[in-house]
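Justification of resources, computational component.

The compute hours requested in this renewal are based largely on the per-chain cost of generating structure records like the one below. Each record pairs the submitted sequence with a full structure-token output. That output is archived, and it is also reused by downstream analysis tasks.
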Amino acid sequence: MPIFIAVVATFLQQSLTYMSHLVVPIAAPELSRIFDLPVALAGAHMGIVYLVASISMVFAGGFIRRFGAARMSQVALLATAIGLALGAAGTLWAFALSAFLIGAGSAFSTPASSDILARYAPPKHAPLIFSIKQTGVPAGGMLGGILVPFLINGWDWQVMFLTLGGSCLALAIAFQAVRKRFDVNRNPNHRINFTQGYYTLRGVLVPRPFRYLVYATFTFCGLQGVFGAFFVSYLVEGLGMTLAAAGGTFAFAQAASIAFRIAWGGMAGTWGARPVLAILGISMAFIAVACGFMNTAWPHWSVTTIAIAYSATAISWHGVVLAEIANLSKAGETATNTGGVLAFATGGQTAYPALFGLLLATTGSFGLGFILAGPPALLVGLLFFLGYRRDIAIEHQGM
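The structure output for this chain reads:
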């Protein structure tokens, strides 16, 4: 029963946190029309979210150790609730502050959930359990893809921001019911200082196994970032779809990725993380490039297939990486190491959408951005493949 409660609680938290990241990008075509602003600004919003999250994650482990994973989950949800509510003000400064709060709060989401699951998940089944929890990300994408157009078209954009912010607030309050259970390992006397940021980064950059995970999360999250920030706008502005149709395609792709997340987790539990990450990196690179060649002549089923393939790879790897971080971490260090690795992940989610937005504003081409985003993931996939081959060769020599 404790593991079931842990998975459900962290799944819901992950869903609403990720949904909050996507609200402005999904609503971007409509907000652009209302405020007469370029769609490319969605990349700036996403960039602020992930830049702030990247900085905050370096210190997430210390806050979780002192205040507890459940308490910091509440902080994350409250910050995203306020951030979304600010969007209803409809001014540039409000959107900027909204992005800041969403980024600062959501930085604690994944490290906190990893801290909880690392204490309850049996090591043998950890990749699968972490992957099941991480299906909260596509679930959040589904919620965003369905609810944002529904609330805008059925009511208006302000109601949309307030309603979705209210859902985050409700879950923050509900988390109080599990706080006592999940925060038993907190240390109220733990001191938080800036030097912890240095040791967190050093701890994931110096050891080679962690450093490889840093490479993976930076490039993989970069591809995830451009998908979340620009795919719906690509379908609307570049392929002529309606916002409802584009949001539905995005949501359907997110739904399909749930099965793939669980499948990748099961494979990692059987084969190990490295070969699975190699397959993921190589695959998502080619799919991102293919996405860049979509145009109005493509039938809807082809666009949907690309969207599903993109979600099956670039949006479906997290459980494998998080379980591997927990596996490599010493007792009590899972949240800190998770924050360290994911600081670079959110760095990718900052850099990729920002560069994509700049490229879009300069060239007017969505496709070129997707084409250029793919090759770095290919290099990382090959790195894991070669590392796996080297380890196999060493094992055979020792036999």
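The chain has a mean pLDDT of 83. The chain has 19 helices and no strands.
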